[in-house]
Amino acid sequence: MHFASPRPRKDEERILPLINIVFLLLIFFMLAGRLAASDPFNVAPAQSASEATAESPEMLVLVGADGQLALDGKILDDAALGADVAARLGGAGDANPRIRLKADGGAPAVRVVAVMELLREAGVETLSLLTTPKVP
After folding, report:
1. CA end-to-end span of the chain, whole Å?
2. What is the mean pLDDT of residues 55-65?
3. Shortest CA distance to 75 belongs to which of 91, 88, 64, 89?
4. Of 63, 86, 93, 98, which one has the fewest beta carbons inside 10 Å?
5. Is the pLDDT of residue 88 over 60?
6. Distance of alpha carbon 95 from its chain centroid, rounded?
7. Helix 78-90, helix 109-121: angle, nearest 10
8. pLDDT surpassing 70 at residue 94
């Protein structure tokens, strides 16, 4: 028996399936992935008539409808929140870091004010309360 010698393969032919797989994986991760971290619990901000925009944040404090607290995506209790914020402010030097407070619209106002007091006691001088514009 006589077999024909195998045809020599070009390098482009061997790498083409790999390129196809890489593009398929890229498309898959673009569709399935998220670019920003999500909040640790669901927060629907309160509504406001003001249309002012928030400046770039340095710390984000969340208050859930049940009064739960989080700082930059990490769930904390009141004492840990105050200590963590104070530690971060102490390490900021002369810089005045911005604090954003995002409270759920269903959160008790007393709880939101208590969190504001807690942040003030931790050394926060400027606080931005995040709201959504009220639809007329």
Report:
1. 88
2. 78
3. 64
4. 93
5. yes
6. 22
7. 40
8. no
